[in-house]
Design goal:
CATH topology: c-terminal domain of poly(a) binding protein
CATH superfamily: Ribosomal protein L20, C-terminal domain
Radius of gyration: 26 Å
Number of strands: 0
CATH architecture: Orthogonal Bundle
Order of helices and strands: HHHHH
Length: 117
């Protein structure tokens, strides 16, 4: 006896068509285009999730650098000074402090200033 795959195929296609909802032109209506575009889109969204982490890190570094330069110090000197002082705050927290709590960030800059040997 032969087993037909109608139900499985329909379920599979329905899922892909649902993912393609809102795509431009035939990319949301024709099976071959839907298949190709959904595959590309899923790959791009995977890459995008990885890129987002680097984008945020860049943003934090930019914010910290801007706040440091207002205090007359460069980003690299600031981070090196914090490391020597034993402060283990990550860039996300430092950027948040720089934007929202200028007074405490100023204290960190003072702490990171190079000491004469």
């Amino acid at each position: 006896m032969r087993i037909k795959s109608g139900v499985t195929t329909r379920r599979h296609k329905k899922k892909k068509f649902r993912l393609a909802k809102g795509f431009y032109g035939d990319k949301s209506r024709k099976w071959r285009q839907v298949k190709q575009q959904v595959e590309r889109s899923l790959a791009a969204s995977y890459v995008g999730r990885k890129d987002k982490k680097g984008d945020f890190r860049s943003l934090w570094i930019t914010r910290i650098n801007a706040a440091c330069r207002e205090q007359g110090m460069s980003y690299s000197v600031f981070l090196g000074g914090l490391k020597k002082a034993g402060v283990t705050l990550n860039r996300k927290m430092l950027a948040q402090m720089a934007v929202q709590d200028g007074a405490s960030f100023k204290k960190l800059v003072e702490l990171a200033k190079p000491r004469p040997a």
